[in-house]
Write a structure and sequence with these properties.
The protein has no helices and ten strands. The chain has a six-stranded mixed β-sheet with strand order 2-10-9-4-5-6, with no helix packed on it. 0% of the residues lie in helices and 45% in strands. The mean pLDDT is 96.
Length: 115
């Protein structure tokens, strides 16, 4: 599976972004999908996961109530709606196939929240 993220950008605190992840291959609709982020000089941080149907979803406490993961299986695309962004959300955001086991990674998209 090949994953291509897009939609990262510069945004001011309180702003919103909606990165997306386009997946190639025929297994997207049967794969759990995960968003992971990494800030400069820090380790990987798990953000959110969706099961294959998009009905079972979990979030890290740091993003709960601000971020929403969703997917369009007809378009092989995963989304992450990010609201009320703050500087601590500045990271490269990666989409990854899998839930418990993270398998294929995209190249990431940079989100920078600046004041």
């Amino acid at each position: 599976v090949q994953l291509v993220e897009s939609g990262g950008d510069l945004v001011q605190p309180g702003g919103s972004l909606r990165p997306s992840c386009a997946a190639s291959g025929s297994t997207f609709s049967t794969d759990a999908m995960t968003w992971v982020r990494q800030a400069t000089g820090k380790g990987l941080e798990w953000v959110s996961v969706s099961d294959d149907s998009g009905k079972l979803i979990e979030y890290a406490d740091s993003v709960k109530s601000r971020f929403t993961i969703s997917r369009d299986n007809a378009k092989n695309t995963l989304y992450l709606q990010m609201n009320s962004l703050n500087p601590e959300d500045t990271s490269i955001y990666y989409c990854v196939t899998g839930g418990s086991n993270l398998i294929d990674w995209g190249q990431g998209t940079q989100v920078t929240v600046y004041s």
